[in-house]
Amino acid sequence: MRARTQKAVALVVAIAIVLALLLSLLVVFSDTAAAHAEMRRSAPKPDQAVGGLVDRVEMEFREPIQPHDQNGVALQYPDGTRALTAIEVNGHLVRGHFDPLTEPGAYKVIWELLDQSDGDWATEEWEFTYDPAAAPPQWLPESAAEGSGGDGGISGATVALIVIIPVAVVLVVWLFWPRRRGADRAQQRRSARTKKRR
Question: How do residues 144-198 score in pLDDT, each as one tens digit?
Fold first, then answer.
């Protein structure tokens, strides 16, 4: 009875480990799939109120952007009209130039860009507010073209996976190997007793 209970517990733990591994893999792959052409930072910042001379938007992306004639950055004005900007692509850095803003209100930036790393198109939009009395935006440095914001570290999902796999292997070995070895010894003892009786 006790052996059956131990086997059932071991089976449940093994299934839980496998499910944890599958979940970790799913998280890692979904993070990777969602990573293309992801904006890291911008000037103006999303939802920021800026003033002074605002004649462009600047965006730094996690992956380099492929120069392409279909790349586009549009600016939507407070009255709802849209205009394409004069786009400049330099590695991770994208600039969209337009005439200096004069009308206060909410402006929407809509971009569609080609990711150089995977060849996929990505699009997104974000807003900022122009208020002549507000402080001017802090423009991105030229080093942003090299991806200066850096991902530098390993993602949390990857770290989790790196930790979970060795732990899972150790647990599986701990759960099954000693029991199998013990079962083999018990079998050897039974065989020895049977031979003696004969």
Answer: 999 865 444 444 555 555 666 666 666 666 666 555 555 556 666 666 666 666 5
> Is residue 86 domain-shared with residue 159, that is, in the same domain?
no
Within the chain, strands assigned E span: 39-43, 49-50, 56-61, 72-76, 82-84, 86-90, 93-97, 105-114, 121-130
- Domain hosting 168: range is 1-34+154-175
Chain segment 83-96, per-residue pLDDT in tens: 999 999 999 999 99
Q: Which helix (H) or strand (E) holds 59?
A: strand 56-61
Q: What residue type is assigned to position 137 of the chain?
A: P
- Same domain for 68 and 132, yes or no, is yes
Among 167, 169, 160, 168, which Cα is nearest to 28's? 160
CA 179 to chain centre: 41
Q: Quote the number of domains for the chain.
A: 2
Would you state the pLDDT for residue 151?
Answer: 45
